[in-house]
Amino acid sequence: MITKDTMITVVNKYGGRVGYKVDDLGVRRTFYPNEKKEISFEELEKLSYAPGGATILKDFLEIQNQEALVKLFNATPEIEYFYTKEDIKNLMTTGTLDQFLDCLDFAP
Question: Which pairing describes strands 27-31 and 36-40: parallel, antiparallel, or unpaired?
Fold first, then answer.
């Protein structure tokens, strides 16, 4: 059961820095490429309501808790959301064309 105090692992999967601030909590964060941080669910929820916050969470940061993702976005993420760099390398070298196209369509 997720509560506002539940700590969630969040990873920057973008190739550059990603930053945001949540004024209600007085929080300002910067993630460097591949950096992991433990963030409270409350902070993620407040960020999701901020202008551009949902885009940051969906397209640049990986939330490594499926229950939190469902609560934040009211949807179960596609399997491609959780692909690692190694998974992507394997897909590109040994995967099928359909698998690759699915990845392009559904991965952030």
Answer: unpaired
Q: Which helix (H) or strand (E) holds 84?
A: none
Q: How far apart are CA 85 and CA 93, in angstroms?
A: 12
DSSP 79: G
The rounded average pLDDT for each run of 10 residues, N- to C-terminus, in the chain (108 residues) is 95 93 96 96 96 92 92 81 81 87 77
Give the per-residue pLDDT at 108.
64
DSSP-assigned letters across all residues of 5-51? T-EEEEEE-SSS-EEEEEGGGTEEEEE-TT-EEEEEHHHHHHHHHST
